[in-house]
Write the structure tokens for this entry.
Amino acid sequence: MTASLTPPRPESLPEVHRSVRVPNAGGFLRKLLAFVGPGYLVAVGYMDPGNWATALAGGSAFGYTLLSIALLSSLMAILLQALCARVGIATGRDLAQLCRERFPTSVAYPLWLLAELAICATDLAELIGTAIALQLLFGVPLILGVMLTALDAFLILWLQNKGIRWLEALIFGFIALIFGCFATQIALADPDWGAVLRGYIPAASIVMNETQLYIAMGILGATVMPHNLYLHTALVQSRDYGRDLDGKREAIRFASIDSTVALSLALLVNSAILITASAVFNTAGRTEVAEIQEAYQLLTPLVGTGAAATLFAVALLLCGINATVTATLSGQIVMEGFLRFRLPPVLRRLITRLVAIIPAVLVTWFYGTSGTAQLLILSQVILSLQLPFAVVPLMLFAGDKGRLGSLTAPRWQLALGWASAALILGLNAKVILDLILQG
């Protein structure tokens, strides 16, 4: 017998690939707990500082109206992340690897560049948001705070050496603290709950009003983030599930439950930011609060207690740290998957971090503390414009019966997924047309 000359296919996130054991025996809950984790790493991208900027701007300017966009975006995210889990488990490949293997280089390399641009836009928001939190809490200069965020590369290495479960536990702990901060803030803000519920009903003004539509696109880009689609297809492969058909079916089911619960929690956090902005700022007639620093300074006099502002800054810091960690992981997945570029872990982490930190330092150097809200919102609109270039390949792979066979996504998921892609493309076209007409 002669050995095959075909080199083994590289694994996605090799440091943690199939590192979490899934029990063969036991009840539903025991198996579910083995899969809990990746969904929460994905969920942090849905409550990052970019979400804060868009939610603050939307809530202060338009009250509870844009809650419907937060809900719609989250429902789309839940569907798309479930499809990511399916594709990653069924193929054993992440989205970047699939694009490199199944598309010609003339398509794959532009997709890689667009993915890198999306990660840079993501990191720009996360690095600046974290730096703002450090400035508010400890008086750290903004540009120094941006540079300090590079330390997350070493945090990831240390936690990954201890195991992916340690990283997941840290992220989950931070999410629990963030949720606690906002639950307290909402109690202090005392919103009109009838108006909150009505805010989840879509309003025609969102499409008719150009400013509302622009911020709505920012909320969409801040919620359904391109890098999370790459990230989730890789993270689900950290579980050592059965590689037969039944094992993959079971893994898809539990991974989908994990991400759905985690993203539902993210929806509550996103809603809480917008509800707080509406209840505190819009109600008081402060309809132009978009800068995070301004929101921090106004919370104490408007709410009547300094605890509200402190909780606001603490939650922002935790969101920023969480999001920079997962964005760095996404950078590794995209670089390795598209370029098949392997480096020692320390060097690879530093490179993926530098790709994003250099633009953030330059932006902070030129703009300082002024204009950060506009930059954060713009970064989220850029993400929305990049989103179809990740969603469309995902939908093509999820509906590929030739490769997924019986694990192909159900028709209703494919129909809703393609409808989501069409909606994103339509809204993007509207924003671009508005910008052209304004120019």
